[in-house]
Amino acid sequence: MTENGDATPLVKLENVNKHFGALHVLKDINLTVSRGEVLVVIGPSGGGKSTLCRTVNRLETIDGGRIVFDGQPLPDEGRGLARLRADVGMVFQSFNLFAHKTIRENVTLGPIRVRRKSREEADRRAMELLERVGIAAQADKYPAQLSGGQQQRVAIARALAMDPKMILFDEPTSALDPEMVQEVLDVMVSLAREGMTMMVVTHEMGFARRAANRVVFMADGQVVEENSPDEFFGAPRTDRAKDFLSKILTH
C-alpha cells in the first residue's frame, strides 16, 4: 500500500513478448512496478533489459501480452500516446538533447508544447529543476558546451519538467566518463528518496544496492530472479545470477 492508499501497481506487464525478426528478446515477462518504487533491472548485455524499459512508454511495441499503465492499457497512437509519454519520462544513454537549443530551451520545450504551460511558468520550473540538479548556471549554454555528466543531468531535469508519474532510465551512465558517473547517480538517488517511481536499467551495482526497492535480474529475454537488494546481492537464488555477480563484483 502506498502513502495515498492506492495499492494497484502503476505499471503491470502481463506475459509480454517481443521479437526482432527471429530473435525472441522478451519471453513471457510478468512484472509490476508499484507507485513510488525504484525497480532496478540488471543482467548481461543482450538480455532484453533496454527493450523491456522501452516497452513501458511504447518506444518499442510488443508482439504479445499486455502492458497496463496507471490502470489503462498502453494506447496505440495519437493523443493517448502523447499523454503516456508525458506521464512516463525517459532518460536515455546518449542524452538526446536538442543541440541547437539552449539548456533552458531543452527543459521548457515539452511543458510548453505538451503540457500547455505558459513560457513564464515553464521557465520558472526549468530554473528550479536545473538548480536541483546542480547546473542552473549553465541554463543559457548549449549542450555541446557541457560535459557528459552535465548533459545527462539536463536530461533528468527535462524529464522532471513534464511532472511525470514515472521516469525510465536506460543505462543513463554508460556513455559517461567514470568521473562523471557519480554526479548523475547522486541526482538519481535523491529522486528515489523523494519517492519518484523509477525503472532503471543499469550496470551500476552500487546504485542498485543504495537506491533500489527491488532488483530484477534479466538474462536471455527472461526475468530470472527478483528480490530486495540485500537478498539479491547477499544470497542470489539462481545459478545464473550467482555466475553474473561473481564476474562483476570481483572487479
TrEMBL record:
TM region(s), chain numbering: none
Q: Where is the signal peptide?
A: none
Q: Where in the cell is it found?
A: Cell membrane
* Keyword vocabulary terms for this entry: Amino-acid transport, ATP-binding, Cell membrane, Membrane, Nucleotide-binding, Transport
Q: Which positions fall inside the ABC transporter domain?
A: 11-245
Membership in a protein family:
Belongs to the ABC transporter superfamily.
Q: Report the protein name in the record.
A: ABC-type polar-amino-acid transporter
User: What broad taxonomic lineage does this protein's source fall under?
Assistant: Bacteria, Bacillati, Actinomycetota, Actinomycetes, Streptosporangiales
